[in-house]
Amino acid sequence: MRILLVEDEPDVRMAISRSLREDGYAVDEADNGVDGLTKAKWWEYDAIILDVMLPRMDGLKMLAALREKINTPVLILSARDSLNNRIQGLDSGADDYLVKPFSMAELLARLRALIRRSNGNADPILRYEDITLDLTSKKVTKGETPVDLTAREYSIFELLMVNRGALFTRAKIYEHLVDEDDSSMSNVVEVHMLRIRKKLGRDIITTRRGLGYMIDG
Ligand code: CA
Asked: Is the dihedral of CA 200, 206, 209, 210 positive or negative?
């Protein structure tokens, strides 16, 4: 999953970004509303974390501009804990609202719930055939047996499971898993697919030749 983080305070931005990466997300950052809006329109993010008080364009304005075209789930961060701001944020099209200071654990939990809801998954445990994927603990089991996936393998499998029935081209898979700072060459999708299938079973992921990959809906 790839997240856009729009936050102007460097310390806060770095702390959030680090936690997100540790939790397996790819993260793009912006330190003002104008750059945030540009990135949000350019890439297909799984969620956006958006501070309200931002230079150049504030978070609520950015959100309003974004919502004309894009329905990526948005979690608003605000230092201002007034009811009015909360309502304003939700009215502008935010999907959730977190007041500073917050714990990183709460941010991560809300983000997971947000992404899950936006994909129509009420339950954090996803099942397909004999495979179970727990979005909270990030554990995958086949039958009763835990399956050991690498971080990258897990990310690809999670993306397909969360979006069951949707077809992902290789380019789309890259877009959701690799952020703008990631220049590693270990992101060859085919290689990961091969390993995931070896661990979970050949037929779990369908290849639509020349088109991409999917888990049937
Ligand atoms: Ca700010």
From this structure: negative
What are the C-alpha distances in Å from 126 to residues 22, 70, 137, 139?
22, 26, 12, 11
Distance 158 CA to ligand 1 centre (A): 32
Residue 118 vs residues 32, 80, 162: alpha-carbon distances, Å: 25, 26, 10
Question: Taking the model in full, what pTM does it have?
Answer: 0.87
Expressed in angstroms and rounded, the spacing between residue 42 Cα and the centre of ligand 1 is 23
Q: What pLDDT, on a 0 to 100 scale, did the predictor assign at position 183?
A: 64
The amino acid present at 99, given as its one-letter code, is V
Question: In angstroms, what is the span from residue 115 Cα to ligand 1's centroid?
Answer: 23
Give the integer Cα–Cα distance in Å for 188 and 150.
Answer: 14
Question: 50: CA distance to ligand 1 center in Å?
Answer: 9
111 alpha carbon to ligand 1 midpoint, in Å? 19
| Pairwise CA distance, residues 96 & 86, whole Å | 9
Question: How far does the centroid of ligand 1 lie from the alpha carbon of residue 163, in Å?
Answer: 32
Q: How far is the CA of 75 from the centre of ligand 1 (A)?
A: 14
Check residue 82 and give its pLDDT. 66
Rounded Cα–Cα distance for residues 190 and 196 (Å):
10
User: How far is the C-alpha of 111 from the C-alpha of 96, rounded, in Å?
Assistant: 9
Please give the pLDDT value at position 80: 66
Distance from residue 9's CA to the centre of ligand 1 (Å): 6
Q: What are the residue ranges in the chain where pLDDT is below 50?
A: none
User: Quick one: pLDDT at residue 81?
Assistant: 66
